[in-house]
Design a protein that fits this description.
By secondary structure, the protein is an alpha/beta fold. The protein folds into two domains: 141 residues, Rossmann fold (3-Layer(aba) Sandwich), CATH 3.40.50.720; 161 residues, Alpha-Beta Complex (L-2-Hydroxyisocaproate Dehydrogenase, Chain A, domain 2), CATH 3.90.110. It is built from ten helices and 14 strands. The strands form three sheets. Strands 3-2-1-4-5-6-12-13-14 form a nine-stranded mixed β-sheet, with helices on both faces. Helix 4 links the parallel strand 4 and strand 5. The protein starts with a strand and ends with a helix.
């Protein structure tokens, strides 16, 4: 049986555990530093398994020893955004948390695939790879799967069509510097630029980019968790089931798109070994310039971290 460890038993981590448990393809370790939090949520999920008809083994713990031999580790731990706070405000606080988490992960699982969800996710993904020393195919972050899911849902509502028929293309930083490409965002192959007026496209794109902030503002005391956990579970599916699925993820670039030594969201092929291929889209000069600018935003955060 595969083994998946989830670090952080907050809303995103716990929902990830529930979604993955319901897949039935892996045993799960849910870990948190708060005594009793992971244990309580893990037990609650375990008690749901007879209803689901599954025999998934779930452990809630505060001990990294329980994560030993993990095939996949998901990092959700860190401080969540509060109203008025940007992802960048989280940088130094979450740097300390993620650094410690990463060291403890690789102490017990020397070659896992690590999926990073902690914000600012591009910088945190760079940090995890830097500290872990793992090859780039084994460290990637949640970015475009969530971003495109938000845009797809808004387009679906606007046009009253199935979300299954909507494809969205979003590259770059997971945040205000993301690069949305409307000409490659389609409904059953038809670009949305042919289906919607420019002002509507711009409105939907802006809402998608600020989707996380909108939810934070509505909740007041929390942040998004259902869509992020669903997005992470889709990434885990691609790895554990070796689906070779093309998904937009925060990935370390080594010359693709003319960029090096940075992490930004790009489409990749995900399989059992993690990132099997970085997919390079043909971009216009304007789009390439926007992507380079987005990468510079991430580089500035990396500089702030002193890496």
């Amino acid at each position: 049986m595969n083994k998946i460890s989830i670090i952080g038993a907050g809303n995103v981590g716990a929902l990830c555990a529930q979604r993955i448990a319901d897949r039935g393809y892996a045993d799960i370790v849910l870990l948190d530093i708060i005594e009793g939090l992971a244990q309580g949520k893990g037990l609650d999920i375990l008690e749901s398994q007879p209803v689901s008809g599954l025999d998934t083994r779930i452990i809630g713990t505060n001990r990294y020893q329980e994560t030993a031999g993990s095939d996949v580790v998901i990092i959700t731990s860190g401080v969540a955004r509060k109203p008025g706070m940007t992802r960048d405000d989280l940088l130094l606080t979450n740097m300390k948390i993620v650094s410690e988490v990463t060291r403890k992960i690789v102490d017990h699982s020397p070659q896992p695939i690590i999926i990073v969800a902690t914000n600012p996710v591009d910088a945190m993904t760079y940090l995890v790879r830097y500290i872990s020393g793992l090859p780039r195919n084994r460290v990637f972050g949640l970015s475009g799967v969530l971003d495109t899911s938000r845009l797809r849902s808004f387009i679906s509502e606007e046009l009253n069509v199935s979300v299954e028929d909507v494809f969205a293309c979003i590259l770059g930083q997971h945040g205000d510097a993301s690069v949305v490409i409307p000409r490659l965002t389609t409904v059953h192959g038809i670009p949305i630029t042919r289906l919607l007026p420019r002002e509507t496209v711009d409105r939907l794109v802006e809402r998608a980019i600020k989707g996380g902030a909108e939810i934070v503002g509505l909740l007041k005391t929390g942040s998004a968790s259902f869509a992020p956990s669903a997005s992470i579970a889709q990434m885990v599916d691609a790895v554990i089931l070796d689906k070779k699925k093309i998904l937009p993820c925060a990935a370390c670039l080594e010359g693709e798109y003319g960029l090096r030594d940075t992490v930004i969201g790009v489409p990749v092929k995900l399989g059992r070994d993690g990132i099997e291929q970085v997919i390079e889209l043909e971009l216009t000069d304007e789009e390439s310039a926007a992507l380079a600018g987005s990468a510079d935003v991430v580089r500035e955060m990396v500089k702030v971290m002193g890496l």
